[in-house]
Amino acid sequence: MVRTQRIMGNKEPVLNFTVLTLFPELVTAFFEHGMIHRGIERNLVSGECVNIRDFSCDRHKTVDDKPYGGGSGMVMKPEPLEAAISSVKKRNPRAKVILMTPQGERFDQKKACDFAVGQEDLIFICGRYEGIDERVYTQFVDEEISIGDYVMTGGELAAMAIIDSVSRMIPGVLGSDASSQSDSFIDDRLEYAQYTRPEVFNDVKVPGVLLSGNHEKIRQWRKTSSLQRTFIKRPDLFETKDPTAEEKIILRQWCRELETLVNP
Ligand code: ADE
């Protein structure tokens, strides 16, 4: 008996996430909490977990086997994965199949935007053990994605990281649309410094301009803060995107201020 659980409301969501996994409870818990849960409740996204083991045809529900050629560890068998993918693709044959693997293309904010605007259905294959049979990759996978140069014991955490960052780009999933527009990495710059109450904390005051109510001054202050943070923490981002004319003026002004500090 094949058991899947599609968590969704009563109108067609913008984006459906389906996770093929041997640990559906892990991913179901993720779909049932926080921002993604709110997006599901508002019918903006849906989340489905498919247990790969449910698609195994033998009575022991085997999903892995020894590697041909010898070696340590086990490899995920192709048949249960093929059956699991086909069952999900019946709903939408154009669904994109993504394999979570440290060998994949590195995931970043641009990729999150591409997935958010360009897709209706994303299927994530989460491998376990030593990996999956190569024929699954060559026959069924559209993209391989990695979340960084380190190896985890399975793809579930990586899939959840991607689903989290993609779904927050869907209008309405976050409290306000503006919150994802000022994110770090939008336009290849880091987000500006944020403050909340109290006005003075451990003798450090909130910058006066943020209390001024002057929207243009606040915009300029935030632009400067964003540029300074990018310059200090991630200067490589200036190689991806050259500073604009406004940014050059701000950076020159900052250099002059630093020079006066060093040579008063
Ligand atoms: N599975 C194991 N490690 C991974 C990684 N770094 N990225 C994506 N999937 C993975």
Describe this structure in words.
With 264 residues, the protein is α/β, with parallel strands linked by helices. The strands form 3 sheets. A 6-stranded mixed β-sheet has the order 1-3-2-7-6-8, sandwiched between helices. A two-stranded antiparallel ribbon has the order 4-5. The protein has a two-stranded antiparallel ribbon with strand order 9-10. The chain has 2 domains: 4-176, Alpha/beta knot (3-Layer(aba) Sandwich); 200-262, tRNA(m1g37)methyltransferase, domain 2 (Trp Operon Repressor, Chain A, Orthogonal Bundle). It has helices at 24-31, 34-41, 78-89, 109-118, 134-140, 156-167, 178-181, 215-233, 237-240, 245-262; strands at residues 4-7, 15-21, 45-51, 64-65, 75-76, 96-106, 121-126, 143-146, 200-201, 204-205. The mean pLDDT is 93.
Topology:
Blueprint: E1 4-7, E2 15-21, H1 24-31, H2 34-41, E3 45-51, E4 64-65, E5 75-76, H3 78-89, E6 96-106, H4 109-118, E7 121-126, H5 134-140, E8 143-146, H6 156-167, H7 178-181, E9 200-201, E10 204-205, H8 215-233, H9 237-240, H10 245-262
Parallel strand pairs: 2-3, 2-7, 6-7, 6-8
Antiparallel strand pairs: 1-3, 4-5, 9-10
Helix pairs in contact: 3-5, 4-6, 8-10
The structure holds adenine.
The radius of gyration is: 23 Å
The general outline is: elongated
Helix content: 25-40%
**Strand order in the sheet with the most strands:** 1-3-2-7-6-8
Task: Tell me the distance between the termini.
Answer: 77 Å
| CATH class identity of the largest domain | Alpha Beta
Instruction: Supply the number of structural domains.
Output: 2
CATH homologous superfamily grouping of the largest domain: SPOUT methyltransferase, trefoil knot domain
Mean pLDDT: 93
Strand content: 15-25%
CATH topology of the largest domain: Alpha/beta knot
Poorly predicted regions are none
Please tally the β strands and state the result: 10
Question: Which distinct ligands sit in these coordinates?
Answer: adenine
CATH architectural label of the largest domain = 3-Layer(aba) Sandwich
The number of helices is 10
Instruction: Report on the biggest sheet.
Output: 6 strands, mixed
Q: H/E element string?
A: EEHHEEEHEHEHEHHEEHHH
Determine the structural class based on helices, strands and strand pairing.
Answer: alpha/beta
